[in-house]
Amino acid sequence: MNKKMEKILYLPNPRGFCAGVERAINIVELSLKKYGPPIYVRHEIVHNPWVVKDLEGKGVVFVDELSDIPKGSRVIFSAHGVSSSVKDEAKEKEIPFIDATCPLVLKVHVEAKRHFENGAHIFLIGHKGHPEVDGTIGQIPEKSITLIEGEVDISQLNKADYTKVALITQTTLSVDDTAKLILSLKKKFPDLIEPPREDICYATTNRQTAVKSIAKKCDAIYVIGGENSSNSLRLVEVAIQSGCKNTFLISEIKSIDWNQMENFNSIGLTASASAPEVLINEFLYLFKSKFESRVEKSTIANENISFKLPKELRE
């Protein structure tokens, strides 16, 4: 490939792994070290194909249900969280488990239980079928919680059906889109009880803000992340909404169309909270080998958050 006019690569920070993802992967790797393979994980530990494949190579077996786990094995619950019934099933079947649920997702679970105990009906803004949403809904009786995916769901709510209402959200949503839905809900339910601090996690918010900061400067933006990853898909949406219509989700570096990239002079690169640094580095290595380029780095927030490991793995 011929080297042409110098390209600018915008590299905003933060990008890549968040503290909850790092903790979940550490839990799996330390469990492998302590208990030996195979270690079973219910659902993908995080939504990234590279991470899943890497862990499978080390002896991790990903399963959909606890019934898929052989007797005498242990299981890890993914970073997205699980319903109370899944934990109850593990206890009944005497399957030892370690819970790798992100502490920020657990915060939402606590909110859901508290609102339910205080007699409120709960509106959960989120995406149907996402494991995090399923886990949150599964914390309380299903009739006590209503999933809100968009404005249509809000328009169909009958104010007279509810006396006390509270709000929680999935942690990996678009900050701007969620803010609009919250406004609509508050218009309909002025006494809506909101979380003391918003439920969308710091990492999701920071990565979206970082992408917004470069979108108008870029001919194209590449988002490294899994195709089933909510925070990856939201980054793509935010980049497009913020002014870069050529935004591409890349789950594997080999899928990049480098010939197409010839047409872009200013390029942005980011990675979702579940995408490992190794993929960012691989992109950078190949990009620099193919094009004359200069890298413009920027930081919109410094992240120094870390979460404790479960006590059985803290030795």
Task: Explain what you see.
With 315 residues, the chain is α/β, with parallel strands linked by helices. The mean pLDDT is 96. The chain is 38% helix and 18% strand. The protein starts with 6 loop residues before the first strand and ends in a 16-residue tail after the last strand. The chain is built from eleven helices and twelve strands. The longest helix has 17 residues, at 19-35.
Short description:
By secondary structure, the chain is of the alpha/beta class.
- Could you say which structural class the secondary elements and strand pairing correspond to? alpha/beta
Mean of the pLDDT scores? 96
Q: How many strand segments?
A: 12
- Mind telling me which CATH architecture of the largest domain this is? 3-Layer(aba) Sandwich
Strand order of the largest sheet: 10-9-11-1-12
- Basic shape: flat
The CATH class designation of the largest domain is Alpha Beta
